[in-house]
Amino acid sequence: MVAEGIKIACGQITWRGSGFSEEQILQQIAEAGYDGAPVPASSLEDVPIVRRWFDAAGLSPAPAYLGAEFWDESQADDIVRRAGDIARVSGEFGLTELYVAASLTPERRAVSGHVKPSDALSGDAYEIFARTLNQVGEATLQHGVRASFHNHVGSFIETRAGIDELFSRVDPALVFHGPDTGHLAWAGDDVVSYVRDYISKITTMHVKDIDPAILAEGVSKGWDYTEFSDHGIFTELGQGFVDFSAVFDLLREASFRGWIVVETDVTQRPTALESATVSRNYLRTLDI
Q1: Looking at the domain that runs over 6-285, which CATH code has it been given?
Q2: How confident is the prediction along the chain (288 residues), in pLDDT tens digits per residue?
Q3: What residues does each domain of the chain span?
Q4: How many CB atoms lie within 10 A of CB 4?
Q5: Are the C-beta atoms of 263 and 11 separated by less than 8 Å?
């Protein structure tokens, strides 16, 4: 790696529905030139087996992901328990971050990329969300793992405004940032500005790119999440409009050390391997 301290993983989501086993997917991620891949949440308790998969592929484990309805107070205890369990196992893999994100909901999927202020959570729901996140942060830090909040189109925390509102309420000593560049761009926000403003709290990051023509068409036609995805909103790195050169310049300036996870949720390329290879080769042009 040319960018010292930055480790590049590739998310397995591009292979969804491909028919390949987890072991085969990891082998292809290694073939595409990555350092690692996220620990699959469905396999977190099978530590010895998963270790063998990663070792066989020559890859390192990257942070896992927890999606939950943080705004639902009735689920808070279970969410905190699950977060603690995932953090414990993550620690066994040597990981120090866990992505935590709001679950997608039907009502927010329907307005993906074109939300209005009236679609936001209420103030009380934000308070519950923040309180639960703080408890999650406490639980994960007991295992040396930082809860790193992940924005997502189709969830209640999609826009920069939603992120800012949430982080005005959480304890910054307990909850960190694990943003997604593609979802920020899809939401209509300035990715570089976000990274610049929150750089000191970013512990890990998903990097996606977004097709600007598809974004514009979908917003104008009021598409939902699935329509955006089916029309090709996601594209390989360097093929969309996210300014990754500026993003990585900011990470270098801040001496960022940690995992960057490349994802193209749905590719228009013939195979997931080709998609992953295109994105990896693009990052090499940035000396990453």
Answers
A1: 3.20.20.150
A2: 346 789 999 999 999 999 999 999 999 999 999 999 999 876 677 899 999 999 999 999 999 999 999 999 999 999 999 999 999 999 999 999 999 999 999 999 999 999 999 999 999 999 999 999 999 999 999 999 999 999 999 999 999 999 999 999 999 999 999 999 999 999 999 999 999 999 999 999 999 999 999 999 999 999 999 999 999 999 999 999 999 999 999 999 999 999 999 999 999 999 999 999 999 999 999 999
A3: 6-285
A4: 8
A5: yes
